[in-house]
């Protein structure tokens, strides 16, 4: 197996479908992944918006196995493998690497709060050492609004210095552009910095970033990729403004249920609406409001039904 | 198997020992559990201070199996079984009940923030229904300073009403006495309310509470139980004040590493100092400060070496 190339461009935390028994539905996930790839969007499976933390390690392992068996190129997968328990992180990361995943997106352990940089460093370092595979590529996952466990610039730099061939990028979902900018300005050699939403895609590209990993790429993949592909053109600002209009609609709803509702509406497949507790699917009124808002901007999801 | 009796008195989130490879050490855990029981302290294994959320579901299942094989009465175990993933919660809860655990202490899923009461209700309801065992006894676990996912009084009441024989108690680790008091005043029939620390043990007993589930019962079990046994006596306030002195010392340090350090010092067993990342063991200076502070109050842990 050749060494994985570093990621760039647009990826999405692929939404995870559940069947009537609330079990993960590998076939439907495979279809969504194929559609994403057809739209030039890479697969950050098991991200926050994948309800990753509502899935067990065993369920995640089975799902990525099924995706690869179903023909998904693992090199296009940046699998979320950072768990609360060190043992889960090691097991899942090792499995993803063995399967050929192009990278792993790693949350810090997120139960204990106010932990030190030393403790977080030890977590990532232990995972890297116990996995012990030169093909491991770690993309750190900074999402303090949800994890409540931030990754400091000092910690990131320390990990890069100790593991320069392994710790190769980050997703910044702080929602704080000044934080992303500080990373971009840090001068880390070929370190891939992804904005956590397309909201900052253009800013990120103009400052040396690698792309974005965005929830709404599940529903608006082609347009987001188009901005990535054309960020140097005079149309870039207009493309960014168009993306913002769509994003702003989804942000008026609970994001994950709204993404799934859109897949249900435009994919004509209402089973997509299901979420695992503690999340709750959109109710009829929310669904009607979302449908109306998307119709008002002539929003479509071309190709989702053929996927 | 007879229906489990409801818990009362003092329980502790038993600290979890790790070996050199950072794997759980079942033998050392068994010794700590036996010592706790000999001091009249019940076993809230897999609580926050057990580093429960740094253990995989598989590791937890193996540990409780080993405890019961080692002679621990499962009726004395209130096992922490609430995980982020519904599938983990169901699996672990079902296993604990099958093993005869007297109860399960259930965190809400704690990754996604700002979730609704409906979503949290669905989580607990799904677990109860999928486990489907009349011997299941659920003690809810309210610890917003760490989980960042509070359990509202409305949610608790709704669960009690729907599952009166199953949802039988709560641990309140909010650190907010007015919240505990509001629960005590709610008039829930024989609902067992445990203070999350011995700090509120006397107040809790005087207001109809069931006891406490406290981290420091790992190190100060006999004295905490003594207050529980004597809370109606004239000495109760003095006993509470004595407990507070000990607790205040431990609270000056990161709690879990400090508890383990005390077990290492008084158990003459330095292997107890190990923690799993993201936690960090006390450093030499902290260890010296803790030792000195405990010596100044003539603190001991009688019986730990014989356990």
Strand content of chain A: 5-15%
Please trace the helix and strand order of chain A, writing H or E for each element.
EHEHEHEHEHHEHEHEHHHH
End-to-end CA span of chain A: 29 Å
Oligomer: homodimer
- Helix segment count of chain A? 12
| Average pLDDT, all residues of chain A | 97
Mind describing the biggest β-sheet of chain A? Answer: 8 strands, parallel
In order across it, which strands form the biggest sheet of chain A? 2-1-8-7-6-5-4-3
Number of DSSP E strands of chain A: 8
Pair of chains with the largest interface and how many residues each contributes = A-B, 41 and 40 residues
What features would you describe in this structure?
The structure is a homodimer of 307-residue chains. Chain A is built from twelve helices and eight strands. By secondary structure, chain A is an alpha/beta fold. An eight-stranded parallel sheet of chain A has the order 2-1-8-7-6-5-4-3. The model of chain A has no long low-confidence stretch (mean pLDDT 97). At the A-B interface, helix 2, helix 3, helix 4 and helix 5 of A face helix 2, helix 3, helix 4 and helix 5 of B.
